Amino acid sequence: MNQLSSFEGKISSRDAVICIYGLGYVGLPLALRYSEVGFRVVGVDIDEERVARLNSGVSGIDHLPDERVAAARANGFEATSDFARTSEGDALIICVPTPLNRYREPDLSYIENTAERIAPHLREGQLVALESTTYPGTTEEVLQPRLEVGGLKAGSDFFLVYSPEREDPGNAKFPTHKIPKICGGLTEDCLTAGLALYGAAIERVVPVSSPRAAEMTKLLENIHRVVNIGLVNEMKIIATRMGIDVHEVVDAAATKPFGFTPYYPGPGIGGHCIPIDPFYLTWKAREFGVHTRFIELAGEINTNMPPWVLDRIIDALNMQGLALSRSRILVLGVAYKKNIDDLRESPALELIHLLQENRADVSFSDPFVPLMRDRKGRDLESVPLTAETIAGFDLAVLVTNHDAFDYDLIREHAKQIVDTRGVYREAENHIIKA
Fold first, then answer.
1. Is residue 222 part of a domain?
2. Hey, which of 38, 47, 105, 273 has its CA 20 to 30 A from 253?
3. How far is CA 243 from the centre of its chain?
4. Domain range spanning residue 425?
5. Contacting residues for 87 by C-beta, under 8 A, at least 6 apart
6. Into how many domains does the chain fold?
7. Half-sphere exposure (CA, 13 Å, Cβ side) for 67?
8. CA dihedral defined by 71, 76, 82, 86, rounded to 10 degrees?
9. Are residues 59 and 69 in contact, defined by beta-carbon separation less than 8 angstroms?
10. Phi-psi category of 259—alpha, beta or left, where left has phi over 0 and alpha has psi -120 to 50?
11. Which residues participate in catalysis according to the annotation?
């Protein structure tokens, strides 16, 4: 039996062991899914506290209930920081972060370090899949040579694929197995093995011609969002100056049954993907002599949204005859999007920093984030939302529109509200849209 047939057989019979590297917002849902469909899963993470927490049956991620982790543990799932466990795996799936460095250039150190720690334990017949969002060429230029240092060759001794993560944390409509999976293999056999691996856990797997095509697909998805959010945020600024409600305009435009997709403005963009991924392509494009002006302009518009919201807050306080430096501000929601606890790249953090820099007295309330640390390293605790609490602030700024907020209570007791999410659609004197 050749390697491909052997691998497919192990996947089909559920005898394959799945190793997943990185047990955060991407890796943990995938690990739980493979466990739920009958595979033994070994999760590898360098965070010892996370490893211990998961082995005790605690998720640590708000939208992934502890019960799912406990059920996975009962099915044989275990977390470890020992990369020697790599040799047990038949499929090795890398789900590590890909941030930007201080110069806004790709930081691939997590991929590089993971590959270098996997390589000594790599054996023939295994499949390695990279899911981390990155620029086209990473799988072949960065990952492959690090895996081949021991003499095994990708495409002949082991399978190599790229399959970008598409997680949307907190989106109950699209759990992991409902989101179609893109997969590009180094060779035809690599692709076939990748389709078998992901087809065992995901309802639809979409093959593409190469890892580079799969890497570019992920970037296009996120750049599409960045550009359209930048467009609607610029429209918001124009509409506000003209006295027009941009949310009303977007809703009206969305009635067109073709040629228009609604995007809604906000205080900026957050999360690990949208604020970061486009810069992976702009960096790589320079190698080919291409300047990505359109993408960079959208990024500039979105980056400038927190300062624009700050200006709206100052305008609102001026209506009360108050200076920002002598005002108490309540920030409603600090997660980067509603109904989750993820603070990564949240525009709320930048807004809080700007308010503090202007000497405002800032507090926050978020049902998903009990404690956070500001840019100066100080711990801030979420304040409870009561009539008395709300009334004690000069202004409340709605940054993240969690469903758990009592918006009627906020409307009734806040002296002023700056609404960055279009929650309050009817015009009221004490509500300022931003």
1. no
2. 273
3. 34
4. 246-434
5. 121, 123
6. 2
7. 2
8. -120
9. yes
10. left
11. 273
Which residue type, as a one-letter code, is found at position 266?
A: G
Q: Is 208 in contact with 182 (CB distance < 8 Å)?
A: yes
List, for residues 287-296, the tens digit of each pLDDT value: 999 999 999 9
Q: How many Cα atoms sit within 13 Å of 80 on the Cβ side?
A: 13
Domain annotation covers residue 240: no
pLDDT for residue 1 is more than 70: no
The DSSP call for residue 142 is I
Q: For residues 433, 277, 339 and 232, what is the CA-based torsion angle, rounded to 10 degrees?
A: 20
**Structure confidence by residue, pLDDT tens digits, 115-156:** 999 999 999 999 999 999 999 999 999 999 999 999 999 999
Beta bridge partners of 396: 330, 417
CA distance 103 to 156: 38
Q: What tokens were used for 80? A: 């470890």
How many residues in the chain? 434
> What's the rounded Cα separation, in Å, for the pair 260 and 128?
39
Alpha-carbon 213 to chain mean position: 21
b/e for 213-224, b at 16 or more Cβ within 10 A?
ebbbbbbebbbe
Quote the CA–CA distance of 123 and 199 in Å, as a whole number. Answer: 23
Last residue of some domain: 187, 210, 233?
210
- Within this chain, do residues 156 and 34 fall inside the same structural domain, yes or no? yes
| Average confidence (pLDDT) over 412-422 | 97
In a domain, 400, yes or no: yes
**pLDDT tens, 22-45?**
999 999 999 999 999 999 999 999
CA dist., res. 26 & res. 42, Å (int): 15
Tens digit of pLDDT for each residue in 201-241?
999 999 999 999 999 999 999 999 999 999 999 999 999 99
Structure token digits, residue 97: 């972060």
Task: Please check whether residue 231 lies inside any domain of the structure.
Answer: no
Question: Pick from 8, 32, 3: which is nearest to 124 by CA?
Answer: 3
Is this structure's pTM higher than 0.90? yes
pLDDT of residue 279 exceeding 90:
no
Residue pair 160/307 in contact by the 8 Å Cβ criterion: no
Q: Where does the pLDDT of residue 375 fall: very low under 50, low under 70, confident under 90, or very high at 90 and above? A: confident
| 201, 269: one domain | no
> Pairing relation of β-strands 371-373 and 431-433?
unpaired
SS3 content of the chain, % helix, strand, coil (to 5): 45, 15, 40
Q: What is the pLDDT of residues 82-99, one digit of tens each?
A: 999 999 999 999 999 999
Q: What is the CATH number of the domain that holds 354?
A: 3.40.50.720
Task: Give the Å distances, CA to CA, from 201 to 31, 85, 125, 149, 398.
Answer: 10, 22, 20, 31, 39
